[in-house]
Amino acid sequence: MFCGKCQNILNLDILLSTQAKHESHDGEEKPIPHHDNYSALVRSAEAGCTLCQLATRSLKRHELSGIFDSGEAPGIDERLYFALVNGDVLWFKSEMEQNRYSPFSDFTGIRLYASEVTRLMSDVFATRRLAGDSGSEQCFEMARHWMKTCMETHGPECSRKKAILPSRLIDVGRADHPTVSLHISNGEPGHWLTLSHCWGKKSMPGTTTSNIAARCNSIHLSSLPQTFRDAISITRKLGYRFIWIDCLCIIQDSLEDWQTESARMAEVYADADMNISADTTADAYEGIFQSSNKVPENPDLVAHSRHEEFLEIPVHGSLLPGATKLFAGCRELQYDPDVLSILGKRAWVFQEALLSRRRLRYTVQGLVWHCRTVYSPCTERNPHKIHDVDFDKDYVVSVYDIPYEPLAPRWAFGSTPRLGFQAIFWWYRQVNEYAPLLLTFSKDRFPALSGLAREFSARTGYQYRCGIWKEDFRRGLLWESTGGATDLTIAPSWSWAAAKCYANYKPIYACLNQEWNYLEGREAEVLESDVDFAQADVFGQAVLPVKLRLRGLQNSQ
Questions:
Q1: Distance between CA atoms of 329 and 158, rounded to whole angstroms?
Q2: Residue 522's domain spans which residues?
């Protein structure tokens, strides 16, 4: 049931006329009268108007109903108006004098959502409801739509390409089959997905020298952690045969196999069709579907239950072929999925994310899509951002934006200043993000970044020396420790990798925010850097000690 005042809201011709961007306006909303005052709104809600009930419930959710019920709230006796602002938020406002605070402005916003199956005026009603279950068919339909759109419309960087299969993969078999198997490839081309997940502290059912033969025959799903089972389900639902899961595809009790396969991990992620990212699982046993689309119960982050009841409202208007529906719900608190990502705190995952062609993230705020062309994340709430691509960008936000061209050393940037500065500054920004991330084994500090460093080197021609580029060595030495002693067992004292960094401190390359023009001279240069590397991998773990010899000007004061 809707009261006479709310009937105007159901008429899209009237509702859209309140927008600031309406063609007849000058960039300001044009609110339309609603109830005479707050008391009239409450009476209408008590009489059964479902939209008025939603508006009053929004106040109760913020524990403000007592103030309004007491009659002490400013503007409580003034007339109410409604307007559509910020795209798809319906606001109830009181008729306040200029520069006076309206108690309704911050608390009575009602989000209008299009249904999952319609693109009703997607330029206005772009927001969608979060699915209650991230494993629902609704979510898989969205994921398939994103992937198809990306492969077909996002250009060469996102086109579907076959690549040489990794050494081992999980063959997921038929959708209804209770077993999978370990596939040993023979260098044949194909398509596969990857999984990024937290290992956690519980033991993992890894592949070993003693069980690899049996696993090539069969692996029962019941023997695998829930996160792996969910990842296999996603792989099947998206129509793929293979998925790469680290502890199942690398022999866990063979150091030689780990060294060989870990050196190839960057290619495994970069060449895969897509990466599945289990953002919210603390270990492999929690499951992807069980833990995503759920804000953790943290009193500092959560003020109310995220799962609201949604009101279905019929709407009509001259722009519509007939009656259709929207969903209305209290405007929800928004949480940054990156801040609440457990997985995002892990160092190994950093390069997995940056190297992957596409990523499908299962987060507390629903599905999130990333690819090499759409740099503003496409989310379950705003799925139409899959079409927001930039084919002509002249800035570096990904290693794949750096062309395969030898890059001049820092003192020669005068010939190509934009590309030179942007590429090297991009690297330092990645180090700032990577340095405080967590590792189970500190010795992995270089290996966990080796794939990204190798790709950067291949594109620029720069030479890597324990986390610093020889061609920009002077600037690379200007890191600062942010709260801990150095660890000289994993890196030489002059490398940022020796520093113990902590999140929420200033970045290790804090000088990025300062003027660096004074660093463009040749007052210092590397004469010798005698570095040995394990397995002869210059991007991997250094064998200490390391000798470094510089030549430069000395301050006489």
A1: 36
A2: 399-552
CA–CA separation, 219 vs 216, rounded Å? 8
Give the pLDDT confidence score for residue 189 in this predicted structure: 97
51 part of a folded domain:
yes
Q: How far is residue 200's CA from residue 346's CA, in Å, rounded to a whole number?
A: 11
Task: Decide: pTM greater than 0.85.
Answer: no
Rounded Cα–Cα distance for residues 204 and 251 (Å): 12
Helix, strand, coil percent values for the chain (each to nearest 5): 35, 20, 50
Amino acid residing at 343: L
Q: Are residues 232 and 351 in the same domain?
A: yes
Whether residue 368 is found in the same domain as residue 431: no
The three-class DSSP label of residue 6 is: helix
CA dist 537 and 540 (Å) reads 5
**Residue 347: both structure tokens together:** 């160092």
Does residue 442 lie within any of the structural domains? yes
Single-letter amino acid, residue 334 = Q
Residues of the chain below pLDDT 50: 63, 97-101, 106, 117, 296-307, 333, 413-416, 518
State residue 316 phi and psi, 5-degree precision: -150, 165
pLDDT per position as a tens digit, 26-43 = 667 788 888 888 788 889
Q: Is 70 exposed, middle or buried (0-12, 13-18, 19+ CB in 10 A)?
A: exposed
Tell me which amino acid residue 114 is. A
Q: Quickly tell me which residue has 């409604």 as its tokens.
A: 82
d(CA 508, CA 495): 11
Q: Give the residue from 530, 525, 522 showing the smallest Cα distance to 546.
A: 530
Q: Are residues 208 and 149 in the same domain?
A: yes
159, 270: one domain: yes
Residue 243 and residue 194 in contact, taking contact as beta carbons nearer than 8 Å: yes
Tally of CB atoms within 10 A around 455: 20
Per the CB < 8 A criterion, the answer to whether 282 and 201 are in contact is no
